[in-house]
Structures are given as C-alpha cells and as structure tokens.
Amino acid sequence: MWSDLESVGQARSGGYRRFAWTAEDHTLREWFAGECARRGLELTTDRVGNQWGWWWDGPGTVDDAVAAGRRAVVTGSHLDSVPDGGAFDGPLGVVSALAAVDRLREAGVRPQVPVAVTNFVDEEGARFGIACAGSRVLTGQLDPARALALTDADGTTYAEALRAAGRDPDDLGPDPQTLARVGAFVELHVEQGRALVDLGAPVAVASDIWPHGRWRFDFPGEANHAGTTRLQDRRDAMLGYADLVLGARHVATQRGCVATVGKVHVTPGGVNAIPSHVTGWLDARGADEEQVVATVAELTARGEEMGATVTRESWTPTTRFDQGLSERLRRVLDRDAEVSAPVLGTGAGHDAGILATAGVPSTMLFVRNPTGVSHSPAEHAEAADCHAGVAALADCLRDLTTGGATTGDGPQDGAA
Ligand SMILES: [Zn+2]
Description:
Blueprint: H1 2-5, H2 23-38, E1 42-45, E2 51-55, H3 62-67, E3 72-78, H4 91-106, E4 115-120, H5 133-138, H6 144-149, H7 158-164, H8 176-179, E5 182-190, H9 195-199, E6 203-209, E7 212-220, H10 237-255, E8 258-267, E9 277-285, H11 289-305, E10 309-316, E11 319-320, H12 323-335, E12 343-346, H13 351-357, E13 362-367, H14 383-402, H15 411-415
This protein binds zinc ion.
C-alpha cells in the first residue's frame, strides 16, 4: 500500500502536494475505494465526500446493527497534504487502518460491532484555508454555505471544485445519519514532535489537542514607484506586516505559546513597487487556552494600530479526547509492552478532535517520528515503528469490538 501511494502528488522537493478535490486527490480517493473493494469493505461516501469502508459480518446490515445498539468502531485519517508535506501525515493512519483490519481478519477476529476505515477529505485546509473542513461540515461545525463560498489561490470556489470533481455542491451538508453509526473513533497519526524519541517508545495514546486558530491580517497601503517616491510620502503595507511577524514571535515567547506567520500575499508583488496591500496569516496555539487568546488579542490590537483589518478564519478551543477511551487503549498497549505507553497532548489539529467536539468518543495513537519534523519532506517514521503502530491499532480495535463491548450500547459502554 505504501509503495502504491509513494508517487502520487510528489513534488520536486520530495514532499507532497495533495490538495482537496484536485487530480491528485482523485487518484488517492480511487486508491482508497480500490483497497476497500479488494477487502470486500462496503464503501459509502457521506454528504461531504468523506469515504467510509465498512466491515460487518454480523446479522443484517450496518444500519441494523446500529439500530440494535451496536455502533461502529471507526479508524482512519486523511490522504491530503499541506504544500510539500511529508509522506506520513495522514496516509500512515489510513494505511495502518487497512492493515489493522487485515491483521484482525488473519487472526480470525469476529467483531461484535461494525468496523469502518475512513478517509476524511480536506483535512489540511491547504487549498481553501479551513482545516478539517471534511469533518467540520460532517458534524455541523462548518456551515456548508460558508464552505461553498471559499476560494483557492486561483479564485476557484469550493462549489466549483466539487462540481469539477463530479459532486453536486447542493449535497454538501452535515450528515447525522453517517455520524450516528460511529460509536468510537481512533485515529492513528505520525507524531508531530519528538516526545516519543525522548521517551524511547514507539507508540503513544493522545490526551488532548491544544487550542488553535487562524487569523487573516489585511494591511492596506498605496502602490507607487520604489525609486521616485520619498520615504515620508509612502503608505507601505509591508511595514505593518513586518511588525506582525516580529510581534508574533515576541508575544508568543512571553506568553508561552507558539505563533507563526507562514503565508503572505503581496500586491502588486513587484520588486520595484511599494506594496499596496499585504495579507498575512497568523496561526496561534498553546497548551494554555487563556494565553493563546491573549496572544492573539495583543497581536490584533497591534495590527489594527498599523491599519490592519483582522479576520478570524478558524478557532478551536482545547479538545479533550474521551478519557475512558484513551485509558482503555493505554491499558491494551501496556498488556505486552515493556514500557508503559506514554499519553501525549498535541499542538496539531485533527479530524479526531472535530469528532470529539461533536460528542463522538474519540482518541488517537501517535507513532514515533525520529526527526520530530512534520509538514515537511523531512517527516519520517521507521518501518518497525509503523508496524508497531499497526499492531497497536489492531489490538485496540480487537479490544473495542470484542472485549466487553458485546452488550448494551457497544463500545461507548467500555469507554464511558
Ligand atoms: Zn494529519
């Protein structure tokens, strides 16, 4: 599976450019559908375009099982990437999910509840600017009208991109029916940091996701000649932007958060032209929600003083994963491990966090990343650790679908 994906959307940097509803995304979705078909998993696509491959050998249909209180245990991740992203962020979770299903079947495991493997669409938000758009619309956390009006760098709207991909934009909306099938969600993901390297463990269980958000700063100016316009006559939009970049570093340091300005648009964008407009995007996160809010408030005030209009594009407060579920998975991993599985928080957003916010018992497994780097071609995971991740995920799925989950409401009982 890994070698199938290796060349799809690979850029010259060695990283990947796999953006939602592009030709690369289409190839990846076809691949996912093929892997589901090969395993006899029943493929469904929800109103947003997220793909689900269902494994249910029990009596009746998946919906019959759900109606009887046997809600599904779901695992998976996403296949899209940031610009020049690594190979593992997303695909490791999808491939591991499929491999875990294979492992369970080889072991003759008969789940008492349906199992599904998912591919969430548009997790990174690289094309239209909103992260986890697929799971947000699914769970009603992003208004479909707002999503449809989003534009990419070429001015293509989300609606147009959906149409070009053969989907009807009118279909886009929350899908409570699909969501009601999910009793628990476990997302395996490459670690985006070096905690597991320091702890000497291949796999960890997640505790929470730091609060995080994105803000757009629009700085106005006046275009003019870089040679003939006196300094005192200029309205240079770049100066406010420069202040934002330095301010972000300064304020975040003081408040113990992280803040990044990683994207900028300059108009007109000529070497010899004074910028008439600069748009910069701020990303702010941290373990302490109050400090993140204060950091952004300070930078907003500072930007407005420089004439900027500040627009909040997204905001997600601290997301706590289901404690019972996380604890249960930790116990499963501890059963035959020499070292106890670490429990880690993360500064990265994930579909599992969006589902957790929607009330779906959710958690994550992290696989060691020796470089600690992510959203870059340097992101890595050793094959042995990836296999350890698959084994851990399979053990967790086995426990959730067979151990103590055969009565009452299914996995939610054990996870409560
Ligand atoms: Zn990811």
